[in-house]
Amino acid sequence: MNKRITFNVPPYTGKEKEYVIRAIDNHKICGDGEFTKKCSEWFENHTSSPKVLLTTSCTHATEMAALLADIKPGDEVIMPSYTFVSTADAFVLRGAQIVFIDIRPDTMNMDEQLIEDAITNKTKAIVPVHYAGIACEMDKIMEIANKYHLFVIEDAAQGVMGTYKGKALGAIGDYGCYSFHETKNFSMGEGGALLIRNKDMIEQAEIIREKGTNRSKFFRGQIDKYTWVEAGSSYLPSEMNAAYLYAELEMADAINKDRLNSWNGYYTKLQCLAKEGHIELPFVPEACRHNGHMFYIKARDIQERTELIKHLEKDGIKAVFHYIPLHSAPAGKKYGRFHGRDIYTTKESERLLRLPMYYGLTEQDQDYICNSLKTFYKKKNKVGIWNRQ
């Protein structure tokens, strides 16, 4: 089989090189130049956030949020176990205990009905993860947070241009964290952004991001020299990375439309397998508008998923599973605990399979992938080994 369809192709619009060269020619490549400012303004305009700061990664955006929320040793932070390690790492670095709760099987997001029971007098924050760009039930989460005076830090790494009841993901909680890794809808190679809802925290965020100095105020001409005023780190990305990202933000609507078309194409073409009971397709709640970040299917179990991956690989198609639940990992056991029962987290994670999804995925390649899936289940039926319980 000569045909190869990779799982991901980083987005590229054509202007990235031009803008990176412009940054070089401007002799300003260290960050907070022309393109950093343009990117920040774009996100502020599109999310209605008072302030959006570009960071070196979504991991670092979450670390900044943990610092701004004053997470300390002994604090507890509630989150789903089905997420990337960075969601937990940012708080573990502050000495917090992670409290994992189960997910909803329909969206793979944290089960909002389980949050309140997990709250103790040590709880400091709730961290909803908008899996696949599909929003958590934010009204309920914000209601609980307000009731117990907790921070809400949104892991919206996959949620850029997704919304919940018309509100941008990442802009609903106290802080929101975006990712611009090469696998995301918009990329700067490695990078992220922190969204800040409370205007009173903007200056503190700028100080933390600039190594604990008031350098940002200096460059705005608000002070005649800058100095070290607080603990911080270096979270400011290169201007060249920002230049790369801005080329894609100029094409954001086109990229978003292209990905949604691919998502809808998969959904339509695989309906037959879902109706026959072979697979389950993603579920999008009515209040959510997703961004086509990911298309996954759910196989019968981990054994069938493994067989399916091998089958697709033989056809030259790269499909992958996703997270290993954090509570089952060595570090998860060391730094956290699972509150309640793991009814769905492990079970559903072992069934989930991500199909190739990227800007520019052709309809012909999508047809090829869907036909390969159909062939797999047709063969299973023929040999009589399909027997859904």
Structural features, described:
The structure is a single chain. With 389 residues, the protein is an alpha/beta fold. Helix content is 38%, strand content 13%. It contains 15 helices and 13 strands. A hairpin with a 2-residue loop joins β6 (163-164) and β7 (167-168). The two termini are 34 Å apart. The model is unreliable at 385-389 (pLDDT under 50).
Structure keywords:
eight-stranded mixed beta sheet, globular, 38% helix, 13 strands, three-stranded antiparallel beta sheet, 389 residues, alpha/beta, disordered C terminus
Order of adjacent strands in the largest pleated sheet: 1-9-8-5-4-2-3-12
Compressed to H and E, one letter per element, the order equals: HHEHEHEHEHEEEEEHHHHHEEHHEHEH
Question: What's the rounded overall pLDDT mean?
Answer: 95
Give start-end ranges of low-pLDDT stretches: 385-389
Estimated radius of gyration: 22 Å
Rough shape? globular
Tally of DSSP β-strands:
13
Number of helices: 15
What is the share of helical residues?
Answer: 25-40%
Q: What's a quick, concise take on this entry?
A:
The protein has 389 residues and is α/β, with parallel strands linked by helices. It has helices at residues 16-25, 34-47, 58-68, 85-92, 115-118, 138-148, 202-209, 215-219, 239-249, 252-269, 271-275, 302-314, 330-335, 345-349, 363-382; strands at 51-55, 76-80, 97-101, 123-126, 151-155, 163-164, 167-168, 175-179, 192-196, 288-289, 296-298, 336-338, 352-354. It starts with 15 loop residues before the first helix and ends in a 7-residue tail after the last helix.
